């Protein structure tokens, strides 16, 4: 999103530069009025206001009410938030589970994505084919069907244990034990590295080959090149992926809902799942709305933290080599 | 603001959740348009929206009955919508919130008080219920008014793998068996099983089975008729100790197997995949077992102790939305559904054993083996059944939490004493 805005901004800036440079561009006038632009994006705007912005306002209102879905909402002020912070054990439990999930799955996923992207960044015959092949799981990764497939494979008599039994390991029910269930979901999340991988790949292609050549001439090893050239030049892309993946990991739902139902004994009870059950299982839409806003604040805070930290580790080549 | 928010935004939020397709569907509903249809009373023509959950067999039979009714009553058409159990309630809640609930709704005991108590259901007096068991009918009443008609009677008991147990030369349960008999039977079976197979399911995580145990001890159901918590601490501790021992002996599966069961799933249901030989079952569950492995399973009455432990609850109900514009027409259809012989021929036992005694007498000679097994459980249970109590508002959620507490015991995270205290806490939070 941020990138898109940036590039759009750059486009208009370029455009202005061309115009201001004195050359007359006939078609320029047609786009003078901003109205035309808004008209062009009106389908998106309509969708945004109707289906994102307005429901958000609504949920903000509901979060201050007791609302069973079946009866009209009753204004109760800050009671919901009060209860969440002071009384709700499940809130803290699910928040803890979610934080574990985010902190473990996001770095793992990004690392996998980066390594795969580096491997796929070579010039090899048929590379397009490999790229498609490796991206493929990400297309189907979050679907319910795949989640059901996993839950069958990871059960006591599942495929994973059959494989393990060939090498003499006696398996267990990976998703049935509270000690391993969350770990299993974290590993499953790693499998959907495709989207980040594609972005990393694009980032890698931006890095000029001359830098590597120069480094080789100076005798830097491949590992050294990776640490001193690839990582710094890729750091804006890493930041971008980190933010996106963190936000989506906080909202993790499908696997927890389909594979484990939050169990065993709440060991995989993700925040989004708790929110969903409050809203539709227990018909506490007001409380669930409050939970949603609390999650928004938490995600906002974590994202802000990441952006704040970025000034210490993200490197923008365009700033003349200085870290921002 | 308030008016706007109720009428405009919620449907939008709902659309957002369930996809746009779900919306536009009811636009053509508004009543009484066509008065043509061969001079029949125009007031009677309507398009009724009807929803239910269930299996394919139930979907097919119900659609045939709808067609039959439309044929007999020109002017009445249906817009059916059916699904599995889980998503059904999410959707119904959202539709009700948007004041867009279907006319005729299949209802469950767990949710009945929730909907009746929130004035979502229409009064159903006037439907012919003369042939219904009054005990069963009372489960469709809220504050003495009839809001839902039971459409199948559903006793709770046990299901066991008859073939496997008989092959061991052990005789299965009789109708007068006790809990001790059940545990003895399980202990007799266990030595003859291969590794990874168990005689009995671990009922520590099944509040409904514990309720049968408590009933059989004469301590009543989990919620009293006044809607108060009625889990007897001593009986609960005794129950936990019994299963603790069984777990130690390896007669019930270890925790991680017990909790990863998925009911009805041919691979993940512990009974269907052969991991356990005995577990609990409603009569209406029986077709689900039978359809996967025909002729293998038997139903047994709930074990007794000082008294019987079983009860009969309505398998499900028909109810009518209070918002419906066609309440009269919907009532006529429900009347037809429970009392008509032609409809009964089509429906069979797809919604449990029919509630009308007349219809049951009519159908009895025609029933197949699966239906007879269900009927057998009803007849065995009927003689000394405990009255069925619909729990107070929020009771369904309480049972979910109760079972989660049970899982913590099974995983040895808390003591049964601590569990009891947690159960009390959950009751206070869940029951409103």
Automatic annotation (TrEMBL), chain A:
Name of the featured protein: Sugar ABC transporter permease
**Keywords of this entry:** Cell membrane, Membrane, Transmembrane, Transmembrane helix, Transport
Among the GO biological process terms of this entry, one is: transmembrane transport
Q: Name one GO cellular component term.
A: plasma membrane
**Localisation:** Cell membrane
> Can you tell which superkingdom this protein's organism belongs to?
Bacteria
Q: Which residues cross the membrane?
A: 35-57, 97-120, 132-150, 181-204, 225-244, 256-276, 288-308
**Annotated ranges, domain ABC transmembrane type-1:** 95-306
Pfam families named in the record: BPD_transp_1
InterPro entries listed in its UniProt record? ABC_transporter_permease, MetI-like, MetI-like_sf
Instruction: Answer yes or no on keyword Membrane.
Output: yes
Q: Which family does it belong to?
A: Belongs to the binding-protein-dependent transport system permease family.
Task: Please name the source species.
Answer: Cohnella terricola
Q: How does it sit in the membrane?
A: Multi-pass membrane protein
From TrEMBL, chain B:
Keywords assigned by UniProt, alphabetized: Signal
* Pfam families per the UniProt record, alphabetical: SBP_bac_8
State the source organism's domain of life.
Answer: Bacteria
Show the InterPro entries listed in the entry: Bact_solute-bd_prot1, SBP
Q: Which Gene3D superfamilies match?
A: Periplasmic binding protein-like II
Q: Which residues form the signal peptide?
A: 1-21
Q: What is this protein called?
A: Extracellular solute-binding protein
